[in-house]
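The pair is quoted verbatim below.
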Amino acid sequence: MSAGKYEIVVQSPMGAQPSTLELNADGSGTQSAQGRTQPITDGKIDGNNVSWKNSITTPFPMTLEFAGVVDGDKISGNVKAGSFGSFPFSGKRA
């Protein structure tokens, strides 16, 4: 089951950016980082493949587009950060 709570870290040019993802079976959920929790949008679970979007305001307003794969208790993939490019993320079930 790919739904659950994950501690993930995005490897961005500004250093490691940790966050907590809570992904529900219906694709809803939240992502928490830097003391802020926001609902995710467009969440999808297709077998072991997961994807979701998270709109952030800091350090710049943009929508982050996550796509990854769950392998047991591990999750990894890439996040597209608008015009800044794409960065890898990885993590594990919390």
Remarks:
- The domain at 4-93 is CATH 2.40.128.120 (Lipocalin).
- The chain has one domain: 4-93.
